[in-house]
Structures are given as structure tokens and as C-alpha cells.
Write a structure and sequence with these properties.
This protein is mainly α. It has helices at residues 12-39, 44-50.
Length: 51
């Protein structure tokens, strides 16, 4: 172990932790979107444009 290894921030635990945090944030974003879409009806113009 050299002196430069002490200041390295990209160890396996940091990578796993940041990946887990990104996954939680992404999941919360998706669930928030589905919640809002489910609670609020789309305007009639959206349904007419789809057909």
C-alpha cells in the first residue's frame, strides 16, 4: 500500500454504495411518476391525439 492509495475514493465499497443510492433515487423517481399519472387523469386532447 502506497501513500497515494490512502486518498483514493473509488474503492469497491464506494462504487457499490453510489450504485445503490442511484438505484434508490431512480426507483423513487419512477414510483413518483406512476403515482402522479395514476392520480391525475390525462386531458381529453391526449386521448384524441392518440387515435
Amino acid at each position: 500500500m502506497t501513500a497515494n492509495d490512502i486518498h483514493t475514493l473509488y474503492g469497491p465499497s464506494v462504487v457499490l454504495l453510489s450504485t445503490a443510492i442511484m438505484g434508490v433515487c431512480g426507483g423513487l423517481g419512477f414510483s413518483n411518476t406512476y403515482y402522479k399519472v395514476g392520480r391525475n387523469q390525462l386531458p381529453l386532447e391526449v386521448w384524441e391525439a392518440a387515435h
